[in-house]
Amino acid sequence: xxxxxxxxxxxxxxxxxxxxxxxxxxxxxxxxxxxxxxxxxxxxxxxxxxxxxxxxxxxxxxxxxxxxxxxxxxxxxxxxxxxxxxxxxxxxxxxxxxxxxxxxxxxxxxxxxxxxxxxxxxxxxxxxxxxxxxxxxxxxxxxxxxxxxxxxxxxxxxxxxxxxxxxxxxxxxxxxxxxxxxxxxxxxxxxxxxxxxxxxxxxxxxxxxxxxxxxxxxxxxxxxxxxxxxxxxxxxxxxxxxxxxxxxxxxxxxxxxxxxxxxxxxxxxxxxxxxxxxxxxxxxxxxxxxxxxxxxxxxxxxxxxxxxxxxxxxxxxxxxxxxxxxxxxxxxxxxxxxxxxxxxxxxxxxxxxxxxxxxxxxxxxxxxxxxxxxxxxxxxxxxxxxxxxxxxxxxxxxxxxxxxxxxxxxxxxxxxxxxxxxxxxxxxxxxxxxxxxxxxxxxxxxxxxxxxxxxxxxxxxxxxxxxxxxxxxxxxxxxxxxxxxxxxxxxxxxxxxxxxxxxxxxxx
Length: 508
Known about the structure:
Layout: H1 2-137, H2 141-189, E1 200-204, H3 209-215, H4 220-229, E2 232-234, E3 241-245, H5 249-265, H6 270-299, H7 306-314, E4 319-320, E5 323-324, H8 325-342, H9 347-355, H10 371-381, H11 386-394, H12 403-417, H13 424-440, E6 446-452, E7 457-462, H14 469-486, E8 494-498
Parallel strand pairs: 7-8
Antiparallel strand pairs: 1-3, 2-3, 4-5, 6-7
Helix pairs in contact: 2-8, 4-6, 5-6, 6-7, 8-9, 8-12, 9-11, 9-12, 10-11, 11-12
């Protein structure tokens, strides 16, 4: 019984507690709702205020932009009105000028018409006068003119001829005297000593025993040297010296350098000889380039192609009538510059023309053609000025290319005519030996040809794989027969055909 009462009381309490909690919860929810609404209203009011402020600022900015645009428009309108006014004023001026021009043109045309009318009237009067004169003289105009000219010519012929002869004589005397003064002054101001080149070089040796080593067993060393260099070694009783004989200075220098290196090394045998001959050729190539650089530096000539510098250096080992060409070219350059200075011409250009005038002689022994033509081709190949190239081409002609070529021709003659400068016999001797070598080398299968013993012997080295022993005998006869038919020479010439086969093998 109490239990049910207790349970009922608990249930009533629970219901009452639930009701009270619900009421409290509802009150709290209502309070929170009222607080959120108030915040939302506050934010809405702030947003509207901000919106109004932004709209107000935008309107103010828009008003300012509109005002600025109106001012710019007003200013542009004013400028356009000014431009329009100026254009209208200029157009009015142009119209006025055009009217004036048309008026002047009309007046000018009237004057031209008047001048033409007067000219026509004058021509009519002139024709009438000519007809009247022809009637009086009974001659046509052409006949009268011819008679007048003939009369004047007859009266003046004697006087003119005498005057012309007098002027020519006076001019020739003045020019000859002037030329004589210029050439004499150039000769006096350019003094050079000369020594004719020889066809032999002396190589000093340390002792007499070295001669035997150079000759070698059965002469194999000296034969190898002579074959590779194209020079003849003269080993006689002259103490501590060997003479290298050959008409080519380059060949003699190669032989001399090779001998000096061989004697310094001490091991003289064919393989070593070949090695040092090649080294001598390389050393000579460097020496040639150096000689070219020194010569050009001495002349003050710059901007020259390195290959042309080497060609210039070859002139150190080239002679003409016994005169060294690089020395001759240097002297001609100086003489040309001196004469150009006297004539008021470009000294540097004249010096360059004079220095390069014989450049063709550097390779004329290896190339067909005369040295002026070869020199012109060389200079044009390396881009040298046309005037300089023409001086090299025409300095031996009767009518040189220009005044500079004429100066070079005179300077060349002065240099060659100096006492002791040249020997005709030497040049003729060299030309004969060159022709002898060229004739012998014209056959097939020949490797090298050397003229030795002053042209009394020709040594011909053949290619062993192309010429056999029997063909070598026949080749010697053919060469001798061709020399007899084509060349003139004193005494007799020995033709030696050498066929050498070398076999090399290595033991490994």
